[in-house]
Specification:
CATH topology of the largest domain: Alkaline Phosphatase, subunit A
Shape: globular
Protein name: Arylsulfatase
GO molecular function, one term: arylsulfatase activity
CATH architecture of the largest domain: 3-Layer(aba) Sandwich
InterPro entries: Alkaline_phosphatase_core_sf (IPR017850), Sulfatase (IPR050738), Sulfatase_CS (IPR024607), Sulfatase_N (IPR000917)
Structural class: alpha+beta
Largest sheet: 10 strands, mixed
Strand order of the largest sheet: 7-6-5-4-8-1-9-11-2-12
Number of strands: 29
Pfam families: Sulfatase
Helix content: 10-25%
Strand content: 25-35%
Number of domains: 3
Family: Belongs to the sulfatase family.
Radius of gyration: 25 Å
Distance between the termini: 62 Å
């Protein structure tokens, strides 16, 4: 009996003193108001709400107006424009290589690191998650995906076919990762980056049908602009997300590690529709409250008291330093952080960091917040302490405050201009960590009469290849020279088109061997008409091999001759090392 008690005590001490695991749940296009905890009258989000009940919620937590910049701030603890992430596609989403990520930090401390879902901070190595500190990656690297059922996924740099609904699939992989690391006795950082409720509005029947007889809030600030079926789909997607969050929490209990795991939940921007959002002003892509105010819930049983409320302003840049301090992990940032740690506030052992302004920006629009005031992108001052919904401009009542905040914004712009990452770099090819480099249509420059299948490049393809002067180019940088096997992913009504891929004096060429012209798909799963591209089942064929030498250059794909009206519809090139 005495030996058993000693063993039990040692086990308890080890559990108490072990490095805590970290699980970060990030929603995509979920609004602040899409939660029961924030007063939504009909949505059911018990798992996410429980994080606030059992841990802490931040009253005023801010992210950026769109996806990629918020993710960059979480990853680095630095304001997005400094990191090179200034937009959502065509290279402007790539996280500068000088940046140190949260995965780098925790892996250096002995953690296993995994990212599951939407990455959106660069595709090719060394921008790929596996070369940004994550041991394991399963998801997609672009801004949105065209199909949420049995989707094409990236698993550690190789394309595979997913299983079932995408949000469920990435959760399955997260659970497997947590179980494997727990069995190995290794602490882990698991970043579960959901793709929902971002469009296209696809959701399993069970979640959709749950909303058949439920009311959507009809009276709100933007009710005249609301598309109610879009809202219904979004809320159903949030409930699916909540169910998957519940699966994560249940697995932590099953593994016996719930008390030694910090769970964080937030969203990447405001809602993707004019739905009820606490009557906050604006939505996604706006620097007003509705576009950038996000929930933030943090749970760590035994360390963060239940129902803790954090009132000081915080933002996505604060997550890295906060989690590092909670886990007693050294940061050693190679670049100055913009964020500060809220660990002492969460655990009740100290005060909040010194107050500082919080900036939100996108495409030239900048707003700034203090604990009381907000200066919006048009220069209007609001007293958010009294008017969180931004209903009354108070510039005339507080002219000195408005003038001071205008100076703060001007100084911030100067600082960003002086410290921002360089212009969008060339696409790297042949990185030593990559067996294959994918060059998708979204990264290509289109010439001649070529068109994208959609205005949003993320999961688009190239069509209208009707002339021999049409071509695609990629500005690339060959990291390590090698011979590469070239594969083209295509559809074509007529076989026989000659394709040539060239760079400097290197060339590979071949003819499309077979016709392959499937219909677009995706609409069969859409709950409302989409704005994004539909998808196709693209076929692969070998274009031979090409020798690429180290250095920069322009990779060019042409169709010198073809028998039909069009040469092909193009999805991607893959360049796989031969040696």
């Amino acid at each position: 009996m005495r030996d058993w008690l000693i063993g039990f005590a040692l086990t308890a001490v080890a559990a108490c003193c072990a490095q805590p695991n970290i699980v970060v749940l990030l929603a995509d296009d979920q609004g602040w108001g899409d939660l029961g905890y924030h007063g939504h009258p009909t949505i059911r989000t018990p798992a996410l709400d429980s994080l606030a009940h059992d841990g802490a919620h931040f009253e005023r937590f801010y992210v950026q107006p769109v996806c990629a910049p918020t993710r960059a701030e979480f990853l680095t603890g630095r304001q997005a424009p400094r990191t090179g992430v200034i937009d959502v596609s065509e290279g402007a989403e790539r996280l500068a290589l000088r940046e140190h990520t949260i995965a780098d930090v925790f892996r250096a401390a002995g953690y296993a690191t995994g990212c599951f879902g939407k990455w959106h901070n660069g595709s090719q190595h060394p921008y790929h998650p596996n070369t940004r500190g994550f041991d394991e990656f399963y998801g997609f690297t672009s801004g949105h995906w065209g199909s949420y059922f049995d989707a094409t996924m990236d698993h550690n740099g190789e394309l595979v076919t997913g299983s079932g609904y995408l949000a469920d699939d990435i959760t399955d992989h997260t659970l497997a990762f947590m179980a494997a690391q727990t069995e190995a006795g290794r602490p882990f950082l698991a970043y579960l980056a959901f793709n929902t409720p971002h469009a296209p509005m696809q959701v399993p029947d069970a979640n959709w049908n749950d909303w058949a007889d439920r009311d959507i809030p009809a009276e709100h600030r933007y009710s005249a602009r609301e598309e109610r079926e879009h809202t219904r789909a979004a809320l159903a997607m949030v409930e699916n997300l909540d169910a998957n969050a519940g699966r994560v929490l249940a697995e932590l209990e099953r593994l016996g590690i719930a008390d030694n795991t910090i769970v964080v939940y937030f969203t990447d921007n405001g809602p993707n529709g004019w739905r009820w959002n606490g009557d906050l002003k604006g939505r996604k892509a706006s620097t007003d409250e509705g576009g950038v105010r996000s929930p933030l819930f943090v749970r760590w049983p035994g360390h963060i008291p239940p129902r803790t409320t954090v009132t000081p302003l915080a933002s996505a840049v604060d997550l890295l330093p906060t989690l590092a301090e909670l886990a007693a992990v050294d940061l050693h940032p190679p670049l100055p952080l913009d964020g500060a740690s809220y660990a002492a506030v969460l655990t009740g052992t100290g005060d909040a960091p010194a107050p500082r302004p919080v900036f939100t920006s996108w495409r030239g629009a900048v707003s700034v917040r203090t604990q009381r005031f907000m200066l919006d992108a048009k220069g209007n001052l609001y007293d958010l302490a009294a008017d969180i919904r931004q209903t009354e401009v108070v510039t005339d009542q507080h002219p000195a405050v408005a003038a001071r905040l205008q100076q703060v914004v001007a100084a911030w712009r100067e600082d960003i201009a002086a410290t921002a990452a360089p212009a969008i770099p060339a696409i790297p090819v042949g990185h030593p960590a990559a067996a294959v480099t994918y060059l998708p249509a979204r990264d290509a420059v289109l010439h001649g009469g070529l068109k994208r299948s959609n205005q949003y490049p993320n999961d688009s393809y190239v069509l209208n290849w009707r002339s021999t002067v049409d071509k695609l180019t990629w500005d690339i940088e060959v990291i390590e020279p090698d011979r590469f096997a070239v594969t083209i992913h295509y559809t074509a009504r007529t076989p026989g088109a000659m394709l040539e891929l060239t760079m400097n004096d290197a060339k590979s060429s071949g003819r499309i061997p077979t016709a392959w012209d499937p219909l677009e798909t995706g609409m069969e799963h859409d709950r409302v008409p989409r704005a994004e591209s539909y998808v196709k089942d693209f076929r692969a064929f070998s274009l031979g091999e090409i020798d690429l030498h180290r250095g920069p250059g322009k990779l060019t794909l042409t169709a010198p001759n073809f028998p039909g009206e069009t040469a092909l519809d193009f999805k991607r090139i893959s360049l796989r090392r031969v040696n």
